[in-house]
Amino acid sequence: MRFTKMQGLGNDYVYVDCFSQKPPRDPGSLAPIISDRHFGVGSDGLILICPSERADVRMRMFNADGSESEMCGNGIRCVAKYTYDHGLARKPVLTVETGRGILTLQLEIKNDKVQRVRVDMGEPILESAKIPTTLPGPRVVDVPLPAEFSGDWCADCGLDSRMTCVSMGNPHVVLYCQDVARVPLERVGPMLEKASLFPRRINVHFVQIHSPGEVTMRTWERGSGITLACGTGACSVCVAGMLTGRTGRKILAHLPGGDLELEWSEQDGHVYKTGPAVEVFSGEWPLGD
Q1: CATH 3.10.310.10 domain span(s) along the chain
Q2: Is the pLDDT of residue 16 over 80?
Q3: Are 262 and 103 in contact (CB under 8 A)?
Q4: DSSP bridge pairs for 163
Q5: Which residues, 6+ apart, have CB-to-CB distance to 174 below 8 Å?
């Protein structure tokens, strides 16, 4: 099976072109094996680029634990780059079918290669039941963090013990603190991800505000653990900041892997995300089918 390794802000995936070859028979079982950073290619997951009857291409995304996710904000930028650079669709504006629906992507092209991609991520989903979460109320905006998740770490990082939940087609919880570097993400992330409050598990983000237009964030991704970037998570941070009055509609988000430009548009209510996409290398996986 031929594959291409790509990354957006260090959020890296193994991509398989299912136009030129058959898709793997069981991608959910393949994803943990090929994603292993010691015995596999090494990645945050597996993404299939497939034909679509409704868009230029279809994206299927599998986390490093084999679970299939609805959407990946950094991954979709790389899908767009692959689609253009490898000639699947040579257009400056592409459509990609995802579990979130069909998304539109504008390409920034230099020397006939895609450098950056602006993604129309659609409208955020804010209804509690649709995120989903069992927390009461129509929306979860600045809701107190349940006591069972608190501890010494809250004071260590200067946590504001209120959380906001947003879905960008996949579920996110956003919390704010004074110093994201002091959050024990490897301990707190999995506790929140698998909490009974979130029936389909959840992506966890801690945010440090520098100004109304600039933040730093760290992420624990559902099914993958600590990652260098999360595109849908950064979109959720943009929405959560506006909902709670902490930030404006446009922000620059600093993630461990780099920066994303985000805007929750007042005109159409959609969230727009702009960032880079990079092809790393290609190869063959001997055990694929």
Answers
A1: 2-121+275-283, 128-271
A2: yes
A3: no
A4: 143, 175
A5: 163, 164, 165, 166, 205, 207, 236, 237, 240
Compute the mean pLDDT over every residue in the chain, rounded to the nearest whole number: 96
Is the confidence at residue 117, as pLDDT, over 80?
yes
Q: Report the CATH fold assignment for 2-121+275-283.
A: Diaminopimelate Epimerase; Chain A, domain 1 (3.10.310)
Distance CA 12, CA 172 (A): 20
Q: pLDDT (tens digit, 9 = 90+) per residue, 171-210?
A: 999 999 999 999 999 999 999 999 999 999 999 999 999 9
pLDDT digits (tens, 9 = 90+) for 237-265: 999 999 999 999 999 999 999 999 999 99
Options 78, 177, 230, 238, the catalytic residue: 230
| Residue pLDDT, tens place only, 182-192 | 999 999 999 99
Could you please state the CATH topology (level 3) that the domain comprising 128-271 is classified under.
Diaminopimelate Epimerase; Chain A, domain 1 (3.10.310)
pTM, full prediction = 0.91
Q: Which residues of 228-261 are buried (b: 16+ CB within 10 A; e: fewer)?
A: bbbbbbbbbbbbbbbbeebbebebebbbbbbbbb
First to last CA, the chain: 7
Distance CA 126, CA 197 (A): 15
230 is an active site residue: yes
Q: Which of 72, 157, 177, 235 is catalytic?
A: 72
Decide if 177 is catalytic. no
Q: Using CA of residue 27, residue 29, residue 32, residue 33, what is the dihedral sign?
A: negative
Identify the CA nearest to 94 among candidates 288, 284, 277, 279. 277
Percent of the chain predicted with pLDDT > 90: 97
Around 107, how many Cα atoms within 13 Å sit in the side-chain half-sphere?
A: 26
**Cα(233)–Cα(165) distance, integer angstroms:** 11
